[in-house]
């Protein structure tokens, strides 16, 4: 019964243990479970509606295209598609440098994924295509598998092909094969419905990893900005080797490329900052990449930079598409680990961006369907000599901010890329590679600004801050592939560390109410005499059961096993005295008639030590032993005032077999020294698992479970003789009344008729 009184309430109900709930409530719950089972079975049956639902889930275009609002959306999608397409062309060319393939192949990576995602994707706003981090990861694999210059020259010496063209073809083959393999991995993950695995990549890990990847991109583009010949490195510490190569050749810098790239970089950064700051006032973001590309191409062509200043340019742009190629199975075997990392990172980035827009515009996205769409996009792109893609944050931002409503904008952006591939590609041949490198770096501003996350994370959560820092260090030192694996392992290790060393606490009553909080947090606390309430805020398993036991011992102030052994030792001595007739029992205690009796402690310690851990049996004695009184012959047994121990397991979600044995041992040790143990807040599944594992016996019974701490405390008060306890007069008076709990933390006494179970 709940009785509201203004801003107060009075609850009158029986004291509930886990076992004494009514049979009717239990049967209703079981009936509900059986009905749910029938519902699951009915859902497993095949039907026309279910087949239609599956078809719509596999082809999301069938659900939104018939409802497309042409008058309201088409113009916005056209503007967005043209703007996004122009950005996609430039980013495709720029990110191809990260893959170390000719720039024209970046256009294929910007075109084919969009076609597949148009039919299979669930997000309406992301722009699928090259992403700098993925391009960097693919480029690392390409560099690792590409033969060195001397080896390539030796292999080509007997052929008619040039060294450069052969090397480029092999690089394209490696990039395409890795892309196909990563797409297969994503497709299998989507079919097997394991998209939930990305939850193991936290926001802190992703932020630290993408920041480290941005630093890798920055270092890799220095050779294009300075036009230096830098040998490829893919092993750990490769970033430092590249920097060493750059600085040792710094005197060979091409000044024209350096000046051009710096000018482009400064202008791009400034205009992007203007776009960000005044995005609410600008109808569309200023297409600074397009403007600078047109200007840089015209200047390079007009002043003949290639011949006058010996700058590196894009060069020949092949018109049309290359024929599809079959992936190299030998490369599959060598790149399975790298491809898995590429597949995971690509999906995580795309799904994260898609989730932002789905929340903003209130439409659902399906993680498993996104895996299928991205997987087929990469397979299709790799087959036509493209490289792995996901979504670039800046490109998706352009598509959304320019008014894109659906993936119609995406397909229109692909048409712009198609026009460049088929007809306008030759216009970009005079463009300097240093300009593309500057444009690639200009898109990293947001990632590089993530360094500010360190201060925010340090204030909010030290563990998340540590994950960010260690992920950044691992990715910088070990490379992106090994760095990602090490970062995930470290993140999981922090979870283990947090649960292995939980912040256990001792609880007490706040304001004589039914609220129990940490004793250290409040001043006005009441702890019932002889009762200790201990809370564990984490799962208990093999790694922390010993920590849990030690914290519990620290909380109660004694080791129950030591008390048990001391009592059994004393009991053996008392039995010997009693058998020899040397012990008399009086109302005032024990009297030993022979002070010269001696016994060896060593004999007790070394002779059948297991007996000391057994329960204390005094039924054969003609008297009862008060272990808190003086014993004969000055036997020293630690005295304890604790008679009840309450374990708050409301935050303990599971136990494993190892910890279950340890927990049972702990409970037995307390029970054997006459300390009653109660467990509160446990879930029904938790108790059922204990039953299945045969946890309970004659000592540890299932009646120790109570619904709340207050239920257990009231039960203790009812079972123990608290009239003889050391309460002062005011406390005894309060005991005659029930508690009314005020919302302001106060208490007032109120006489009311309540069930007898709650009176004490």
Automatic annotation (TrEMBL):
Residues 521-716 form the STAS domain. PROSITE patterns: SLC26A, STAS. The chain crosses the membrane at residues 78-99, 105-121, 128-146, 170-189, 196-219, 255-272, 284-303, 340-359, 371-388, 408-428, 465-493. It is a multi-pass membrane protein. Keywords: Membrane, Transmembrane, Transmembrane helix. InterPro entries: S04_transporter_CS, SLC26A/SulP_dom, SLC26A/SulP_fam, STAS_dom, STAS_dom_sf. One of its GO terms (cellular component) is sperm midpiece. The keyword rRNA-binding does not apply. NCBIfam families: sulP (TIGR00815). PANTHER family: SULFATE TRANSPORTER. This is Solute carrier family 26 member 3. It comes from Mustela putorius furo (European domestic ferret).
């Amino acid at each position: 019964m709940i009785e509201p009184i203004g801003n107060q309430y009075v609850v009158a109900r029986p004291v509930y243990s886990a076992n004494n709930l009514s049979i009717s409530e239990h049967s209703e719950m079981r009936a509900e479970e059986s009905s749910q089972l029938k519902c699951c079975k009915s859902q497993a049956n095949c039907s026309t509606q279910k087949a239609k639902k599956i078809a719509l889930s596999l082809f999301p275009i069938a659900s939104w295209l018939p409802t497309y609002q042409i008058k309201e959306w088409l113009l916005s999608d056209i503007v967005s598609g043209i703007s996004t397409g122009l950005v996609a062309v430039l980013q495709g060319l720029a990110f191809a440098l990260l893959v170390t393939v000719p720039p024209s192949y970046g256009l294929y990576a910007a075109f084919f994924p969009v076609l597949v995602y148009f039919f299979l994707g669930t997000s309406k706003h992301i722009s699928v295509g090259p992403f700098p981090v993925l391009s960097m990861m693919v480029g690392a694999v390409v560099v690792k598998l590409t033969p060195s210059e001397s080896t390539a020259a030796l292999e080509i010496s007997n052929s008619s092909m040039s060294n450069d063209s052969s090397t480029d073809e092999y690089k394209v083959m490696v990039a395409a094969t890795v892309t196909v393999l990563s797409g297969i991995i994503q497709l299998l993950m989507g079919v097997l419905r394991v998209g939930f695995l990305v939850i193991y990549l936290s926001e802190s890990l992703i932020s630290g990893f993408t920041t480290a990847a941005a630093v890798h991109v920055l270092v890799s583009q220095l050779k294009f900005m300075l036009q230096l010949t830098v040998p490829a490195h893919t092993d750990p510490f490769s970033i430092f080797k590249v920097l060493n190569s750059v600085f040792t050749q710094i005197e060979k810098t091409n000044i024209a490329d350096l000046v051009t790239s710096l000018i482009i970089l400064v202008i791009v950064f400034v205009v992007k900052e203007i776009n960000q700051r005044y995005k609410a006032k600008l109808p569309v973001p200023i297409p600074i990449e397009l403007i600078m590309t047109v200007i840089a191409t015209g200047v390079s062509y007009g002043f003949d930079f290639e011949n006058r200043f010996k700058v590196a340019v894009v060069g020949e742009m092949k018109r049309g598409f290359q024929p599809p190629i079959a992936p190299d199975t030998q490369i599959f075997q060598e790149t399975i680990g790298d491809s898995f990392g590429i597949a995971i990172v690509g999906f995580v980035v795309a799904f994260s961006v898609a989730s932002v827009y789905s929340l903003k515009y209130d439409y659902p996205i399906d993680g498993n369907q996104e895996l299928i769409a991205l997987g087929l996009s990469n397979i299709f792109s790799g087959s036509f000599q493209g490289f792995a893609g996901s979504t670039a944050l800046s490109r998706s931002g352009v598509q959304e901010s320019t008014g894109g409503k659906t993936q119609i904008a995406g397909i229109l952006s692909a048409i712009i890329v198609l026009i460049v591939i088929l007809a306008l590609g030759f216009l970009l041949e005079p463009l300097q590679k240093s300009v593309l490198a500057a444009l690639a770096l200009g898109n990293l501003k947001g990632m590089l600004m993530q360094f500010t996350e360190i201060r925010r994370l340090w204030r909010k959560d030290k563990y998340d801050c540590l994950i960010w820092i260690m992920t950044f260090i691992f990715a910088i030192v070990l490379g992106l592939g090994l760095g990602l694996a090490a970062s995930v392992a470290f993140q999981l290790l922090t979870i283990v560390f947090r649960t292995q060393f939980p912040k256990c606490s001792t609880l007490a009553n706040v304001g004589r109410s039914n609220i129990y909080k940490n004793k250290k947090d409040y001043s006005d606390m009441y702890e019932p005499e002889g009762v200790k309430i201990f809370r564990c805020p984490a799962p208990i398993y093999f790694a922390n059961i010993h920590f849990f036991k030690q914290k519990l011992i620290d909380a109660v102030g004694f080791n129950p096993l030591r008390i048990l052994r001391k009592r059994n030792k004393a009991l053996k001595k008392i039995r010997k005295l009693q058998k020899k007739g040397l012990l008399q029992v009086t109302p005032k205690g024990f009297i030993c008639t022979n002070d010269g009796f001696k016994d060896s402690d060593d004999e007790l310690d070394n002779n059948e030590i297991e007996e000391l851990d057994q329960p204390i049996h005094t039924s054969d004695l003609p008297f009862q032993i008060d272990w808190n009184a003086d014993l004969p012959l000055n036997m020293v047994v630690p005295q304890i005032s604790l008679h009840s121990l309450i374990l708050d397991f409301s935050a303990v979600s599971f136990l494993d077999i190892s910890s279950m044995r340890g927990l049972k041992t702990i409970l037995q040790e307390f029970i054997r020294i006459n300390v009653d143990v109660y467990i509160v807040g446990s879930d029904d599944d938790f108790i059922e698992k204990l039953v299945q594992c045969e946890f309970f016996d004659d000592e540890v019974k299932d009646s120790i479970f109570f619904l709340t701490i207050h239920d257990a405390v009231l039960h203790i008060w009812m079972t123990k003789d608290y009239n003889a306890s050391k309460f002062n007069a005011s406390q005894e008076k309060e005991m005659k009344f029930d508690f009314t709990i005020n919302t302001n933390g106060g208490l007032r006494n109120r006489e009311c008729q309540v069930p007898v179970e709650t009176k004490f």
